[in-house]
Amino acid sequence: MAGIYIHIPFCKKLCHYCDFYHVIAQDDNSAYIDALKKEAEMRQNYLAGEPVKTIYIGGGTPSVLTAGELENIIGFLGKLFVIEPENEITVELNPDDITGNYLKELRQININRISLGVQSWRDEDLKMMNRRHTALEAQDAIEKSINAGFENISVDLIYGIPGMGIDNWASNLDKTLSFDIRHLSAYHLTIEPGTVFGRMKEKGVLEEVDEEESTAEFNLLIDKTTSAGFIHYEISNFGKPDYFSVHNTNYWKQVSYLGLGPSAHSFNGYSRQWNIRDLKKYIKALKGGKLLFEREELDIKTRFNEYIMTSLRTMWGIDLEYVEKIFEKEGYDYVVNLSGKFINYGLMKQENNNLVLTNQGKMISDNIISEMMMPGEK
Ligand SMILES: C[S@@+](CC[C@H](N)C(=O)[O-])C[C@H]1O[C@@H](n2cnc3c(N)ncnc32)[C@H](O)[C@@H]1O
Ligand code: SF4
After folding, report:
1. Integer Cα distance of 58 and 90 in angstroms
2. Does residue 17 line the site of ligand 1, with CB under 6 A?
């Protein structure tokens, strides 16, 4: 089983926090679609014939493409790869791109999961982040998606927004959970260097929220989603039973994936590679039959550290049997010895043969992960 990620790097307006590779949307997407198809063709053997269970079209803003353009890409992949009939095909949508007709067309081309970037229900937050839509438009987008027959709907929210505060975060969660959605991704705002927010922080006009507020908002997120029947299956991800993101879960479970498009990453168990973050160079190179990327072969220590980093963020935690099988006695002893102190502090617990973070541990997951990694890779 494998996955395919397709990056659509176009945005109509650039959000002040966002560090994902994007350029301003253009009128004609044909050169880009041709390049994507060329890359897929050139890398047909990357997944070594493994059947593809999930396709994730992310961005940037995939909803700047017409349903016909998306169908063109997905249909082409279907000729090159074996797509499993029981699949998950996700598209990220920006609320302001959505019409009932567009959603109907997406259903017709077998898109079965959508991820809507709502971010906040407060217009002042949306404006501050330079989002293109209002809260009302986001509401309309969710309602239209439900009416179009989408069952597997995910919403993205951001917390830890300066000026939002815990009470508004509580209202944002209540409003989100009042819809019949099956999945929520909630990210703490990261102020990335090189973004507008990054520059504002450098100038001292934007300050990150303090740790106390971050922790309180994270706690509230866990409480409210859990009470609403969601399972906290990864630090930033909450799903109703049977509605976890299969694609993202596979990233965390070391399943191979092929990433197409500028900046897209790929993984095949032994190496990672990432495409150039430059649309023009990406298209030009592919026209000449060349792909511009960098690759890192993963030595055993890097694989171990990647496993610790991803597994500890999930509800399944570190599988000790897997650790012993792949990382042998040295890896197993290392994990068991180090985990003792976290278990004593109530930050980690052993469930059957797995080590998982407690809710208290999740609050400081980054610190625990960093301590659990083998030196040299921190
Ligand atoms: C690939 S991005 C954007 C998807 C889509 N274009 C949109 O804007 O809704 C996926 C999600 O990452 C989150 N995100 C991006 N940058 C972030 C940041 N700096 N801090 C916190 N969350 C961020 C947002 O919630 C966003 O919806
Ligand atoms: S959050 Fe989405 S719409 Fe905003 S700049 Fe990033 S990718 Fe584009």
Report:
1. 8
2. yes
